[in-house]
Amino acid sequence: MRTEQPRTIYLKDYQAPDYLIDETHLTFELHEDRTLVHAQLVMRRNPARGSGLPPLVLDGQQLELLSIRLNDRELGAHDYLLDDRHLTLQPDSAEFVIDSSVCIHPESNTALEGLYKSGKMFCTQCEAEGFRKITYYLDRPDVMSKFTTTVSADRQRYPVLLSNGNPITSGSEDNGRHWATWEDPFRKPAYLFALVAGDLWCVEDQFTTMSQREVALRIYVEPENLDKCQHAMDSLKRAMRWDEEAYGREYDLDIFMIVAVNDFNMGAMENKGLNIFNSSAVLAKAETATDAAHQRVEAIVAHEYFHNWSGNRVTCRDWFQLSLKEGFTVFRDAGFSADMNSPTVKRIEDVAYLRTHQFAEDAGPMAHSVRPDAYMEISNFYTLTVYEKGAEVVRMIQTLLGAEGFRKGSDLYFQRHDGQAVTCDDFVKAMEDANGVDLAQFKRWYSQAGTPRLEVGSAYDAEAKTLTLTFRQLCPPSPGQAHKEPFVIPVDLALLDGQGRELPLRLAGEAAASGTSRVLAVNEAEQSFTFVDIPEQPLPSLLRGFSAPVKLSFPYSRDQLMFLMQHDSDGFNRWEAGQQLAVQVLQELIGQRQRGEPMVLDRRLVAALKSVLENDGLDQAMVAEMLSLPGEAYLIEISEVADVDAIHAAREFARRELAEALFEPLWQRYQANRQASRQSAYVATAEHFARRSLQNIALSYLMLSEKPEVLEAAQEQYREADNMTERLAALAVLVNSPFEEAKAEGLALFADRFKDDPLVMDQWFSVQAGCPLPGGLERVRALMQHPAFTIKNPNKVRALIGAFANQNHANFHRDDGESYRFLADQVIMLNALNPQIAARQLAPLTRWRKYDLSRQALMKAELERILVSGSLSSDVYEVVSKSLA
Ligand code: 0A1
Ligand code: ZN
């Protein structure tokens, strides 16, 4: 916490460290009321920085210094400078050893950064700058050191003592305490350090690597969760095999451990050999976790595992390079999930998420490039832009180079930079060198923020049999970047004839046609491409698979979109055509509503979804995706000024009309799938996910009919389901329905059954927080008093406050501003407890420019109130001040 304004750190100021730390020897004495940390650092002058001996400036925060030695000399207060962020001393030789002892207080650490307690266990979170809350250190990712760690604690309370690397020795003391020493043979930055101590049980397995080494796999949990680890373990083994096959990456230690903790700011953390997970990202079994949760566990387990190469073996030089590891690793985990499930469905989900949330970030006051060039608080830059857009940038490189060229590039990258801390430029350079290409212009994706718009026009010349596509790209200004240079935009496309067949593609000037789909690299502000030998006016299928993170516009008519929905050979674009059709129809309804006219649904949307529902040849997951109307958040994102009430009313109206018109086919699909669910036990496979997702979306439409047979079906599904996917979906439709009695009964039964399972109670909170019926704020306030709620647990905050502010648009944007006031109150409270979570919960208020003037004023007033509310963390200060600027 601070009163002065936080400093801005700039990429252009980067300098290599003055000193290096070759070895780090840590000893932790864990006690209930304090922890003693002794650190021995074997250091030397960085030869790359010249020969003099500048002062050594160690990072350290919230540490009580007990003693410090330089070589064998105990230093007194006059030998060093100490402030609340640094300890500065003067080395007298190029090689030296520092010994420090500090006292810290994990037992009262509510920020969950550094060493803290989650329930009864000790654990750490050091990325990005948490290690400086553990000991005095050069806490920056380009300082890599070999760590040995000894942990000592009470044997009864903390029978399990873990750290990175391999266990070396352990022993007991007479006083009821015991200790263990771990050694990590790989040099690593401090942000990858981890320690865990607790009464943990583990599920064990083994993996044989591609060079036949045996690796012990362990997932540590509290005893009540032992039965929820199998899915994560299976996912881990699949991920290890996949990384060998897809990237040639083998695991490198003899043991790989995952620990589940209940209190965690993010999803999980890739600490070397000792991944620490938010329990929500590792625990899953049919009865307590939905299909979506199972898929999230599979993806996050893989993500953290993949970091062992993209992040740990090759790490970041500085935090501006965060996307080097995060964008690449998200890209890698997406490839894995695509291969394990349905690639098209995975792509649809990722794109829907990106367009709704990352595009909004890119258009807001916190917009930044994939490689930012300035920050106040690095924790604020674990963003959708760095992660999700960063992954899109890597994906575009692959699209431009082809799968083989990309693999050559990644092989070169890992080989060239193993053991180093490098930059996004180094990554791109490896791609260039392995393929003999120049990606200089492409690199603007790393430095320019904002979402480019790509406007495409087409002109068919029937006489010359040519089709000319004209591309115009423009990227709106973003904070600090008024003008943007043209991007390289890979546009994957095909041209479809009247039967929906792909035409052979030959560009003017080319000797012969090659293939029926191809990638054009659009790299100028305005540019045309002419295809020859085109026998009839074709319909272009553009940006297939969403080949670039841009806002595409092409003047498709609704009939053309319906044609693409049926015929496009690119599955993603079939879905996309349906979404665009729905957007057009919904925007028309929104307009009618705003003008006070009766809303009239374009029946073409009904016809289109009817044929989707009746198409037995379509993958059920695709049917479910195509039935899902664009979400309110997406409709808000694409509005100039978002009229939340009209958006909500129009979408609900469309859903009701569709439910009525399509009742029969929905009911058939529902019953067939529910029947199949009844007949087979739960399995977490793509086919079963697909079946249940169609079943549940059908139920949510059917329920709008308010017919007694549907209510009965929902209640039956709720009571009889053997899995959380069906049970929660049934609860959600009850909660969102007018059947007060059924709703109250469902909620009470659920809470009673799952009151002791915090992750299930999170889902119970979320379903209610997201309910758009009037009175949402009052319901959320009441739920905050529920015994299962605590503001100190980030999952609870996200489940209740986050779900309300981010998903319940109708209630969050009520016109008296009371929900804004509520959110600001929570942010002020969280600021003192957990700044990272406080800053994240703020996001919906920062989007004030999207709304009408009256709401803008109300939202800004709350931001201003936060700004003057007292000692703000750098996390909250940065977000509030930038969003008011
Ligand atoms: N590197 C982790 C994410 C992570 C980042 C910061 C954290 O604490 C502030 C925790 C986790 C990942 O990408 O999975
Ligand atoms: Zn990551």
Structure, described:
Its cofactor is Zn(2+). Belongs to the peptidase M1 family. Its EC number is 3.4.11.2. Pfam families: DUF3458, DUF3458_C, Peptidase_M1, Peptidase_M1_N. This is Aminopeptidase N. The two termini are about 20 Å apart. The protein is globular, with a radius of gyration of 28 Å. Helices cover about 40% and strands about 20% of the residues. The model has no long low-confidence stretch (mean pLDDT about 100). Strands 6-5-9-3-2-12-15-14 form an eight-stranded mixed β-sheet, with no helix packed on it. Helix 2 (about 290-305) crosses helix 3 (about 320-340) and helix 17 packs parallel to helix 19 (about 760-770). It has about 900 residues and is an alpha+beta fold. Among the domains are: about 1-200, tricorn interacting facor f3 domain (Immunoglobulin-like), CATH 2.60.40; about 310-550, Neutral Protease, domain 2; about 755-885, Zincin-like fold (Alpha Horseshoe), CATH 1.25.50. The structure holds O-methyl-L-tyrosine and zinc ion.
Top-tier CATH class of the domain at 309-549: Mainly Alpha
CATH homologous superfamily of the domain at 309-549?
Neutral Protease Domain 2
Radius of gyration: 28 Å
Major sheet details: 8 strands, mixed
Which residue ranges are poorly predicted, with pLDDT under 50 across at least 5 consecutive positions? none
State which percent range the strand residues make up: 15-25%
Mean of all residue-level pLDDT scores: 98
Tell me the structural class: alpha+beta
* Fraction of residues in helix: 40-55%
CATH fold descriptor of the domain at 309-549: Neutral Protease, domain 2
Strand tally? 31
